[in-house]
Specification:
Elements (H helix, E strand, L loop, with lengths): L6 E11 L3 H12 L4 E4 L4 H4 L7 E3 H9 L4 H6 L1 E3 L2 E5 L2 E5 L1 H5 L3 E3 L2 H15 L3 E3 L3 E6 L7 E5 L6 E11 L17 E17 L7 E4 L6 E5 L5 E7 L10 H11 L11 E16 L2 E2 L2 E3 L5 E2 L7 H22 L3 H4 L1 H24 L6 H16 L1 H12 L5
Helix pairs in contact: 1-6, 1-8, 8-10, 10-11, 11-12
Bound molecules: 8-demethyl-8-dimethylamino-flavin-adenine-dinucleotide.
Length: 401
């Protein structure tokens, strides 16, 4: 894409497109090493600091943030979870993964993490972030003089920033992925064929851990977020209309699918209600010329296994470190192996997501064969220590370094 009307402006080593967890982490790593960069974001700061999404962060990921000086507030405020619970056949089945692996999960809402990262980048490390930009375009990616242009929200003028590298961190609906020529990339997609009604309830958690409800009427999930807000999921048909899910219908369905010998769920006002069509994609390679994709821009994992933000941070650590090594020491080994290193982790999570999806959705598939094999898979997790450990290893992600 070229724009001949664009007035040339300053040069910075790196332009980062997108101020989500991936982009802000790359920006923070660059700023800590004294490397200049600009972050371009289409939304306002207030919007990104409130956008609700993830909550489950793996221990190795928190250690990675901590090593880069980005986890102080998280470590003060996050909950630590050491077990999870499956409910099926009207009973609770607890899995204490800490006993099997010595590891735990952190629960920290994504907007809180984004708030910490943007504060550290812009207010503490003096990073340049431009909010509310429009029509971001990439130019000359396969040359050694790429640039990024955008429409300035105040003047409507097109501004151009020359750079050495572009970090494409603009999520699933961004523009950077589209800049890769189709003949140079492979896109692998998987559609789970189901939808999830993603809900946020103004109610305290009803359990001290994540709960997965495996039910013939469909999957239901309970995930703590903060002391006042809890995330719930209900499996629904693809493309279902969230407006057909009234307050009463949602709570009746959650109570039924998560029913067990535990007390009923604590109900509350629903403050988010949207249907997600469950699908995944992976773009290979994650690099084209001077453009490096990271996070959801390169690979989407439906929230089935709570991996998306963890993978985005994994990419960001590799990309930030690789850019710093190249720009400050002329060491390009990190950038050369970037795509391969990230994709190995991405495919591991894709496979686990597929495995877990069958547990969540098999019993409600209407297919007696799938329903019976799902229950066999679940029984195995609760009767074989080896199967339980294999599940826990995948669920928790890699051992922290
Ligand atoms: P993001 O967070 O989408 O950030 C991209 C940013 O880029 C901006 N943008 C642009 N900026 C400039 N120019 C453009 N043309 C632009 N287009 C877009 C956007 O406004 C945004 O600010 O991507 P990133 O950084 O790769 O992070 C990915 C994660 O956000 C995502 O994977 C997770 O939220 C997925 N996910 C979960 N992941 C976990 O690891 N654990 C979880 O528990 C978990 N729960 C979830 C989730 C995702 C969910 N939804 C809504 C799909 C729960 C849900 C309901």
């Amino acid at each position: 894409m070229t724009d001949t009307n664009a007035a040339p402006t300053a040069h910075v080593p790196v332009v980062i497109v997108g101020a989500g967890p991936a982009g802000l982490t790359v920006g923070n790593i660059l700023r800590a090493a004294g490397v200049d960069c600009v972050v371009l974001e289409t939304e306002t700061r207030e919007f990104i600091e409130q956008r609700p999404r993830a909550g489950v962060i793996e221990e190795w990921c928190v250690r990675g943030l901590e090593r880069r000086g980005l986890a102080d507030t998280l470590l003060e405020r996050a909950q630590r979870h050491t077990e999870c619970e499956f409910r099926f056949g009207g009973r609770r089945h607890r899995l204490r993964y800490v006993d099997l692996t010595g590891r735990h999960h952190y629960v920290y809402p994504q907007p809180w993490l984004v708030t910490d990262l943007v504060r550290e980048y812009a207010d503490v490390r003096g990073g340049d972030v431009r909010f509310s930009v429009r029509d971001v375009r990439l130019h000359g990616l396969d040359t050694d003089r790429p640039s990024v242009s955008y429409l300035c929200p105040d003047t409507g003028e097109r501004r151009t920033i020359r750079c050495d590298f572009v970090a494409g961190c603009d999520g699933a609906r961004g523009v950077t992925r589209a800049a890769l020529p189709p003949e140079r990339l492979r896109v692998a997609r998987h559609d789970y064929g189901v939808g999830w009604l993603a809900l946020l309830a103004e109610a305290p958690a009803s359990s001290d851990c994540v709960v997965f409800g495996i039910h013939p009427r469909g999957f239901a999930g309970h995930m703590a977020r903060s002391s006042e807000v809890t995330r719930y999921y209900l499996e629904v048909p693809r493309g279902d209309d969230p407006d057909t899910w009234s307050h009463d219908r949602v709570w009746a369905e959650l109570q039924e699918r998560l029913a067990s010998d535990a007390p009923p769920l604590t109900e509350g006002r629903l403050i988010e209600k949207r249907v997600l069509d469950m699908h995944n994609y992976v773009v290979e390679p994650m690099v084209f010329g001077r453009l490096f994709l990271a996070g959801d821009a390169a690979h989407l994992t439906a929230p089935i296994a709570a991996k998306g933000m963890n993978l985005a941070l994994h990419d960001a650590f590799h990309l930030g470190d690789g850019l710093v090594a190249h720009l400050t020491r002329g060491d390009d080994s990190g950038l050369r192996t970037y795509s391969e290193a990230c994709l190995a982790r991405v495919w591991d999570c894709q496979e686990f997501s597929l495995w877990l999806s069958e547990i969540y959705h098999g019993t409600s598939s209407g297919d007696p064969y799938r329903a019976a094999t799902t229950l066999a898979r679940l029984r195995r997790v609760f009767t074989s220590p080896a199967a339980a450990t294999a599940f826990a290893e995948q669920f928790l992600g890699p051992r922290p370094d």
